[in-house]
């Protein structure tokens, strides 16, 4: 496995591309937006420069990393040599299915197709292709270059060979992996959204300030990041989308907090919009 194509140049897609290139894969990063590709290229260069200045990588690793990534707006060209495609677009099933149908027609028969979904069904996605045995979920965490886990989710038809290849790639990326049988929300999302949603409810009820809720969880439960900070990092719209799906599939305990719904309606999506629970416009 040498050639990885990443679809979607957002925070997660850019992070997956950066980490893959750093670990000696040849990477093509694709997006339908030229502007988003340019922003992702700038962010990857900024991260590489900062990592080199801080001694996390050598100058040779930085140059090699940047040489390993190509940015491509044509989907057909992006996947022409791909052995593994990792999709990292918005968490909407209809959009993922539409994309995977295109990938199925454009990619080599041997290409493995992975989705970076945090909650949606790889079985449903794979069933829309002619290769369900080569479709799985490969759930990375933000920021990708720092977070050690990849959650690997097996669809109903996913082959053992596909799972073993994805495990090997994850190890080559410097990650630990866990294998999860498909169920809505997998392991991490089910737990994470419950904590984040309850934090939103506490904020709405006036139990404590956002800062003190986050501080309590970090210092009292030893979490590296507070649940409201985490929501802003992930994106409150993404958090809401996951909750809506889990509410539909798993029941009432996943009903989204009214305050979360209100923030998303107001366009307060977190770091990516400059404002969420906290204000980032001065950063």
Strand content: 5-15%
Mean pLDDT: 95
From the N-terminal CA to the C-terminal CA, the straight-line distance is 39 Å
User: Given the helix and strand composition, which structural class is it?
Assistant: alpha/beta
| CATH architecture assignment of the largest domain | 3-Layer(aba) Sandwich
| Overall outline | globular
Q: And the CATH topology of the largest domain?
A: Rossmann fold
Radius of gyration: 19 Å
Q: Reading side by side through the largest sheet, how are the strands ordered?
A: 3-2-1-4-5-6-7-8
Number of strands: 8
Please tally the helical runs, counting DSSP H or I stretches of 4 or more residues: 12
CATH homologous superfamily of the largest domain - what is it? NAD(P)-binding Rossmann-like Domain
**Fraction of residues in H or I helices:** 40-55%
- Note poorly predicted spans: none
- Oligomeric state of this protein: single chain
* SSE order: EHEHHEHEHEHEEHEHHHHH
Name of the CATH class of the largest domain:
Alpha Beta
**Biggest pleated sheet:** 8 strands, mixed
Q: Domains counted in the coordinates: how many?
A: 2
Site (Important for catalytic activity): 139
GO molecular function, one term: NAD+ binding
Keywords: NAD, Oxidoreductase
Protein name: 3-hydroxyacyl-CoA dehydrogenase
């Amino acid at each position: 496995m040498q050639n990885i194509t990443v679809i979607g140049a957002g925070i997660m897609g850019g992070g997956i591309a950066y980490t893959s290139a750093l670990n000696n894969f040849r990477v093509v990063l694709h997006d339908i937006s030229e502007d988003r590709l340019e922003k992702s290229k700038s962010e990857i260069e900024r991260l590489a420069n900062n990592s080199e200045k801080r001694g996390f990588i050598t100058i040779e690793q930085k140059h090699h990393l940047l040489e390993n990534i190509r940015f491509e707006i044509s989907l057909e060209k992006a996947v022409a040599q791909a052995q593994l495609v990792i999709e990292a677009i918005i968490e909407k099933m209809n959009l993922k299915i539409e994309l995977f149908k295109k990938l199925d027609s454009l990619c080599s028969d041997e290409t493995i197709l992975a989705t970076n979904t945090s909650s949606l069904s790889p079985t449903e996605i794979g069933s829309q292709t002619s290769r369900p045995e080569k479709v799985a979920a490969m759930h990375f965490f933000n920021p990708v270059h720092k977070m050690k886990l990849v959650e690997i989710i097996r669809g109903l038809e996913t082959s053992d060979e596909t799972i073993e290849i994805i495990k090997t790639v994850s190890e080559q990326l410097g990650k630990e992996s866990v294998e999860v049988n498909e169920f809505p929300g997998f392991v991490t999302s089910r737990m994470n959204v419950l904590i984040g949603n309850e934090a939103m409810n506490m904020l709405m009820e006036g139990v404590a300030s956002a800062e003190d809720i986050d501080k309590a969880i970090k210092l009292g439960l030893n979490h590296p990041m507070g649940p409201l900070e985490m929501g802003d990092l992930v994106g409150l719209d993404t958090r809401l989308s996951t909750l809506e799906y889990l509410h539909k599939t798993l029941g009432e305990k996943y009903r989204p907090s009214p305050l979360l719904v209100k923030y998303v309606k107001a366009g307060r999506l977190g770091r990516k919009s400059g404002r969420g629970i906290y204000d980032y416009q001065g950063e």
